[in-house]
């Protein structure tokens, strides 16, 4: 429970940093510099921690559906980044 609270506080701190970065205007570490690292972190977590568990699953259909969901999430991040 304490570790979950710690990660939740990390998420709040990250959101606060993003809001401060957005208000900073033309600083080099604003949203244009922060978003690629954030997206890369999500993709890294998805591929390194979740993908090996999917490959151990004996049901290939379920693993394929979850892999497609992961790719759909990455595609949505790309679409949002392009449309923004």
From TrEMBL:
Catalytic activity as recorded in UniProt: Zn(2+)(in) = Zn(2+)(out)
Pfam family for this entry, one: Zip
Membrane topology, from the record: Multi-pass membrane protein
InterPro entries xrefs: ZIP
Protein origin, superkingdom: Eukaryota
GO cellular component: Golgi apparatus; membrane
Main localisation: Golgi
GO biological processes: intracellular zinc ion homeostasis
Subcellular location per the Swiss-Prot or TrEMBL entry: Golgi apparatus, cis-Golgi network membrane
Chain ranges passing through the membrane: 28-51, 63-81
Signal peptide (UniProt feature, chain positions): 1-17
GO molecular function: zinc ion transmembrane transporter activity
PANTHER family: ZINC TRANSPORTER SLC39A7, ZINC TRANSPORTER SLC39A7 HISTIDINE-RICH MEMBRANE PROTEIN KE4
Membership in a protein family: Belongs to the ZIP transporter (TC 2.A.5) family. KE4/Catsup subfamily.
Protein name according to UniProt: Zinc transporter SLC39A7
Biological source species: Eolophus roseicapilla
Lineage, top ranks: Eukaryota, Metazoa, Chordata, Craniata, Vertebrata
